[in-house]
Amino acid sequence: MNSRYFVFLICLLTLSIAVSGQSISRSEIREARKEAIREKNEQKQAVLAATPLVNSPFNDADSFGKNVKFLGSLYAGTVYVYHTCDPVTFEAELGAPLAADDKCVEYTPNTPGSTFEFYDPAWEFVIPGRTVSNVVYPLLNNSTGFDSFTVTGYPFTYFYSPRVKIESDALNDPAAINPETGLPMNGSYTTSLAGSQTRTFSTTAGEFLTDYRSYASVSGRGLSRAYFRALGLPENVINQLFKKDMKLKFGIRGRATGPVDFSQMFFTYRLVGN
C-alpha cells in the first residue's frame, strides 16, 4: 500500500464524516491508519533485508535456481457477520449451515463494530523440519463480500486481513525478539499475509449495496530467510527455524461497522517452498 493510497484513505474517512453528519470513532481512524502503515512496512520488507545481498543481481540468492516444492493446500473456514449466529436461524434464513470450522460474528447493523480475529485447529499446517531450506511461500485466493442497506445513512467500514501465527521451538531462543513489541517471541510470531482489504465510505438513506470479490495475493519474499532477517532474527535462530518443525496457524482478522446486513470472508491457499 503506497502513500498515495494512505492519503486517499484518510480523505475518504473525512468525507464520510462530512457527508453523513455522523462521526466515526477515533479508534476506527487509528485502526485504518495502522493497517495502512503495516501494509507499507511489509511491502518494504519484501524488498529489503537486514543483511542485504550487495553482490547479488537477484536480491534473493538463497532461492535462485532452486526447484519449487509443493507443500500442500488448505481452506480456512468462512467468517460470517450476521444479525444472529444461532445455527438453526442462520441455516433457515441463509439456506446453508455453519460448517464445523466456520466462525460467526453476531452484529447489529448501523452500530460500531469491534475488530475480531479467529484461528481454528482445522486451519493449521505443520512443515516438518528440513523440508525446505529457504522459504515457505503462501499463495492465497481471498474471497470477501457484503450486503448493506440503510434507512438513515451511516458511515461504512469493512476490513479483512488473512493472518498467520508461526510457532517453532527455534523462536523460544531469547535472541528472537518481536520487532513490534521489543519483547521475546516466546515460541511464536504473528503477522498479516498479503491480501488485506480496508474499505471506508459513506452511505445515503435508502441505499442498497452489494459487493463480492475474489482475488489472489502473494507477498514479495514469503516466509523466507530474507524475511526473517528483516525482522531482526539472528542467523543461528533462522537456521534452527528451518531445521525444526514449523507450525503455521492461519487465521482471519476483520471488522464491519455501519449498515452491514451480511458479510462473509475466507481464503484458500497453496504452500510452496524451496
Note down, in words, how this protein is organized.
The chain is α+β, with helices and mostly antiparallel strands and 274 residues long. The protein has one domain. It has helices at residues 3-20, 26-45, 87-94, 225-230, 235-243, and strands at 69-82, 103-106, 116-127, 135-150, 155-167, 188-192, 197-202, 207-217, 223-224, 246-257, 260-273. The strands form two sheets. Strands 1, 2, 4, 8, 9 and 11 form a six-stranded mixed beta sheet that branches. The radius of gyration is 20 Å and the shape is elongated. The two termini are 27 Å apart. Residues 1-23 and 49-54 have low confidence and may be disordered.
Keywords:
22% helix; disordered N terminus; 11 strands; elongated; 6-stranded mixed beta sheet; alpha+beta; 274 residues
